[in-house]
Amino acid sequence: MALQSIPYGLTTLASRQDFQTTLDRLIRALKDKGVTVFAVIDHAAGAQAAGLALGPTTVVVFGDPRAGTPLMQARQSVGIDLPLKMLVWRDAAGATQVSYNDPAWIARRHGLDPDAQPGVAKMSAALAMFAAAAAGD
User: Fold this and answer.
1) CATH of the domain at 65
2) E strands, 1-137, in order
3) Can you say whether residue 111 is alpha, beta or left, with left for phi > 0 and alpha for psi between -120 and 50 degrees?
4) I need a surface site. Which of 10, 37, 93, 115 has the fewest CB within 10 A?
5) Other Cβ atoms within 10 Å of 80 Cβ, number
6) What 3-state class would DSSP assign to 117?
7) What is the domain count for the chain?
8) Measured between alpha carbons, how far is 33 from 47 in angstroms, rounded to an integer?
9) From residue 7, how far is each of 4, 50, 101, 115 by CA, in Å?
10) What's the domain range around 125?
11) What is the mean pLDDT of each run of 10 residues along the chain (137 residues)?
């Protein structure tokens, strides 16, 4: 599967799995690594409740204070981008995608050098691993 990075720090990975399997695998991978899942937000259900149509679109909000706190200590405004989140969604062609903000982009957004922040590389690797686990790689 090709990892696609587009401007503004968004990384997207096509899943080999259907939507629900991808979502379930993501949540399981996070919990298996001891990461706290704070919320699962079903945007499609919200749209339906408002009488609107939206394909499967779910955000999983998660984190570990040991990873995020050092970034917020360096620049407290990073808190607007934490905890981390991943979006599992089905595109117009029916393919399931997993998207997330790259932690290096988050650091740069707040005026930090990602290479000078020891946790950024680990966070990036962890996000790539979680996305691959969800997508079936």
Assistant:
1) 3.30.310.70
2) 3-6, 10-14, 36-42, 57-63, 84-90, 96-101
3) left
4) 93
5) 10
6) coil
7) 1
8) 32
9) 10, 31, 10, 19
10) 3-135
11) 65 96 98 97 98 98 93 95 97 97 94 92 96 93
Res 6: pLDDT = 55
Task: Please give the mean pLDDT across all residues of the chain.
Answer: 93
pLDDT, position 4? 56
Token pair 């695998």: residue: 25
SS3 percent helix, strand, coil of the chain, rounded to 5, is: 50, 25, 25
pLDDT at 118: 84
Burial call 28-64: b when 16+ CB within 10 Å, e when fewer = ebbeeeebeeeeeeeebeeeeeeeeeeebbbebebbb
Amino acid letter for position 3: L
